[in-house]
Description:
This protein has 125 residues and is an all-beta fold. The chain has no helices and 11 strands. The strands form 2 sheets. Strands 2, 4, 5, 6, 9, 10 and 11 form a 7-stranded mixed β-sheet that branches. It starts with a strand and ends with a strand.
Amino acid sequence: QVQLVESGGGLVQAGGSLRLSCAASGLGFSSYTMGWFRQAPGKEREFVSGISWSGGSTAYADSVKGRFTISRDNAKNTVYLQMISLKPGDTGVYYCGAYYRGNYLWDRPNNYGYWGQGTQVTVSS
Length: 125
């Protein structure tokens, strides 16, 4: 069975840093574009960052460019999101998604076939 498990969330003050991890099992990890999304209460799931299954391409939402870095380790079936200079607006549940052979429209949640359970990130002012 496919399983994506996020970890690394927590409570931090503005300006702090967190590193999120998403460990995947039950799928051919290197065939999937991996994405990070976040969702605040009462709001839609929002694209944060993505990394291609091949070629090493990355993408970021404008709101996080220069502060967040996505990476993956295919040998460990894990994708990471390094977050620095966190702001209160970054607060939300962060989800890891897997998009089979994803070549475009990375910001569309319905393109992702698998999701983790999410990890809470709370940034206080």
